[in-house]
């Protein structure tokens, strides 16, 4: 039978330790590399080095304009989404550089992200 002290420890673990463990993933939620930070956090977060690397990686990555636009806008405009997808594909293939990509997305959706 579980005693009172074990219940308190379980509660502390679930409420305090778990969010701290997943802090890098929470901070990288709207970033371009969210999935990779999450996977690194899940599989190597138990090591202090893996947790710190995922935290730094999650903090230093730029926001994904498409994901931020979808989460911050109640009714997404299909034309803007299509243009953001086109710009992201051009950036991923190397047709435009990072600065041009960010300037064009800012012009398209403003500073709402």
UniProtKB/TrEMBL annotation:
Record keywords, A-Z: Membrane, Transmembrane, Transmembrane helix
Tagged with keyword Transmembrane: yes
Record InterPro entries: Phage_imm
Transmembrane domains' residue ranges: 7-27, 39-60
The protein's name: Superinfection immunity protein
Protein source organism: Mucilaginibacter dorajii
Lineage: Bacteria, Pseudomonadati, Bacteroidota, Sphingobacteriia, Sphingobacteriales
